[in-house]
Amino acid sequence: MSAVVRNNVHTAGAGQTAMVFAHGFGCDQNMWRHVSPAFEDKFRVVLFDHVGAGGSDLKAYDPAKYSTLHGYAEDVVEIGNELGLKDAVFVGHSVSAMIGLLASLKARGMFKSLVMVGPSPRYIDDDDYVGGFKEQQIAELLDFLADNHMGWSTAMAPVIMGNADRPDLGAELTNSFCRTDPDIAKEFARVTFNSDNRADLAKVTIPTLILQCSEDVIAPIAVGEYVHKQIPNSELVILKATGHCPNLSAPEEVVSAMRGFV
Fold first, then answer.
1. Which helix (H) or strand (E) holds 93?
2. Does residue 193 contact residue 142 with C-beta atoms inside 8 Å?
3. Are 251 and 35 within 8 A, CB to CB?
4. pLDDT digits (tens, 9 = 90+) for 76-119
5. Of 96, 120, 244, 249, catalytic
6. Which of 4, 128, 241, 243 could form a disulfide with 250 if both were Cys (CB 3.0 to 4.6 A apart)?
């Protein structure tokens, strides 16, 4: 099957340089609707859904392939190859920041720069490394999701989104979580929250922009600072935005920071 069909790829804009947007866990390409149009005047904007999300082909989900983030990165490379991408910009939210990083290492030359929105190379604390969660907390979170997908979505989405004074944002993320296939969501969460890509950060040689929210329960400021310190040619911008999804809660700020970079 074509990767463009499998991953429900949509393109817009007429620029010569492509800008690929990748969504985070429990989301789909619709989460970029307030950001991606701002770049259609100068870029060929590419949107897609990870397998298991949005309008992707659920039948293409392979537990073995997607048992690590490398499987998702392979999909990004396949999409890029089919679209003939070269020197493109990759924009990844949350777990897709690391997926994009891995894709850039697999296909050098496909991407000329990376934009990471709320990245985390490892969510679990480890010795001197602060990831934001204890191992037991992640285990409990994954057990809760496995036992009660709807309950987990309703409880966790507003916490992840933050911005309690704007309940519509939490409701949108809740609905997005609830739309994902429960079995695939359970596995993707396990892969996401148990991932450790710290050793890959130093391998990145292309310019990288890290957008870090000022308050984020999923990826605290210490994590953004760590990513910045480990990626040689990187720039860290601390956004005024709070929560883990500034692409929804503060799209203008995200667009402004990206424009200064790309």
1. strand 88-93
2. yes
3. yes
4. 999 999 999 999 999 999 999 999 999 999 999 999 999 999 99
5. 244
6. 241
Q: What average pLDDT does this structure show over 132-144? A: 96
Q: Specify if 155 maps to a domain.
A: no
- pLDDT per residue as tens digits for the range 69-88: 999 999 999 999 999 999 99
Is 131 contained in some domain? no
Closest by CA position to 75, among listed 87, 62, 88: 62
* Alpha-carbon dihedral sign for residues 242, 208, 56, 62: negative
Inform me whether the pLDDT recorded for 223 exceeds 90. Answer: yes
Question: Is there a catalytic annotation at residue 49?
Answer: no
209 domain-assigned: yes
Residue with tokens 């866990």: 25
Report the domain count for the chain. 1
Q: Indicate which residue of 36, 56, 94, 113 is catalytic.
A: 94
Per the annotation, the verdict on 28 as an active-site residue is no
Q: In 3D, which of 43, 73, 50, 2 has the Cα closest to residue 180?
A: 50
What are the structure tokens assigned to 205, written together?
């040689």
Q: Is residue 249 part of a domain?
A: yes
The CA-CA-CA angle for residues 237, 171, 222, to 5°, reads 25
Gap between the Cα atoms of 173 and 208, Å rounded:
27
Q: Give the dihedral sign, CA 210/215/216/219.
A: positive
Asked if 216 is an active-site residue, the reply is yes
Catalytic residue among 56, 216, 234, 249: 216
| Sheet of strand 43-47, all strands in order from the earlier edge strand to the far edge | 10-12, 43-47, 17-22, 88-93, 111-117, 208-215, 234-242
- 71: domain CATH number is 3.40.50.1820
Residue 57's domain spans which residues?
3-123+196-259
